[in-house]
């Protein structure tokens, strides 16, 4: 029986690139997203018979159970990886960010990930050596000014990953996170609150590089098959990780300047 991966946020970006890579390597893929058209577009890029798609909101706990029941039934119970990837970006000063945007970001980026972990555990526990993979961010290495809400949610994902990797070891489930810097995805098209600039324009103006999604997909593969709890992706993420460990004062000064 082919191995299987279930990916939230599979309609575009990191989720789509990861689905393509895993399918190319013989895995069955389950894709979930609220974007039905995007799911259909991703499906067309994958080998026939290797993918199942589900319109699902990660905030919907009933939807999680129904969808995972359907996917594991289609894979004869084989469930090797749950990729908690769905997320949204919120940029701009906290004081300029509306409460609706804050609540939505926390609900999708934190509660949605918790839902996937808690509900997904029972399914993962049926397959020896299964893995829960979460998408964190370089903003979880050191809090990023202008991305306070987003950083807070990704710190939560980082902490959850570390906690569950210990907590679930007795169940034979590995828990991993990819920690990408700025990735070339549609999330960067969002507008920074309090301005008319996109997140992409703000990132580029600060001098940060944009990492292609294919590199993140490879990092997801490496994380699932490796021993590291966190897999950093992109030059900025690696530099921030080193600076946060060995020169936090320098990193803080640099981020204030940016």
TrEMBL record:
| Top-rank taxon, per record | Bacteria
What name does this protein carry? SDR family oxidoreductase
Q: Enumerate the UniProt keywords alphabetically.
A: Oxidoreductase
Keyword Oxidoreductase in the entry? The reply is yes
Coiled-coil ranges (or none) = none
The UniProt GO MF terms for this protein read: oxidoreductase activity
**InterPro entries the UniProt entry points to:** NAD(P)-bd_dom_sf (IPR036291), SDR_fam (IPR002347)
Q: Which SUPFAM superfamilies match?
A: NAD(P)-binding Rossmann-fold domains (SSF51735)
Similarity annotation: Belongs to the short-chain dehydrogenases/reductases (SDR) family.
* Classification via Pfam families: adh_short
């Amino acid at each position: 029986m082919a191995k299987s991966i279930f990916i939230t946020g599979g309609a575009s970006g990191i989720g789509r690139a990861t689905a393509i890579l895993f399918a190319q390597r013989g895995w069955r893929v389950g894709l979930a997203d609220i974007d039905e058209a995007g799911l259909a577009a991703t499906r067309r890029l994958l080998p026939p018979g290797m993918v199942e798609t589900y319109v699902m909101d990660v905030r919907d706990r009933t939807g999680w159970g129904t969808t995972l029941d359907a996917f594991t039934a289609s894979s004869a119970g084989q469930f090797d990886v749950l990729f908690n990837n769905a997320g949204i970006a919120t940029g701009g000063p906290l004081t300029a960010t509306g409460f609706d945007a804050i609540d939505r970001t926390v609900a999708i980026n934190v509660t949605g990930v918790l839902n996937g972990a808690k509900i997904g555990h029972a399914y993962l526990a049926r397959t020896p050596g299964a893995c829960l993979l979460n998408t964190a961010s370089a903003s979880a290495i050191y809090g990023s000014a202008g991305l306070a809400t987003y950083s807070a949610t990704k710190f939560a994902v980082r902490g959850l990953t570390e906690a569950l990797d210990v907590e679930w070891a007795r169940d034979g489930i590995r828990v991993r996170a990819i920690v990408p810097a700025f990735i070339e995805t549609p999330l960067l098209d969002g507008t920074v609150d309090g301005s008319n600039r996109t997140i992409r324009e703000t990132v580029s103006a600060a001098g940060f590089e944009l990492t292609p999604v294919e590199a993140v997909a490879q990092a997801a593969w490496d994380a699932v098959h490796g021993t590291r709890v966190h897999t950093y992706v992109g030059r900025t993420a690696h530099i921030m990780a080193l600076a946060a460990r060995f020169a936090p004062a320098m990193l803080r000064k640099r981020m204030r300047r940016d």
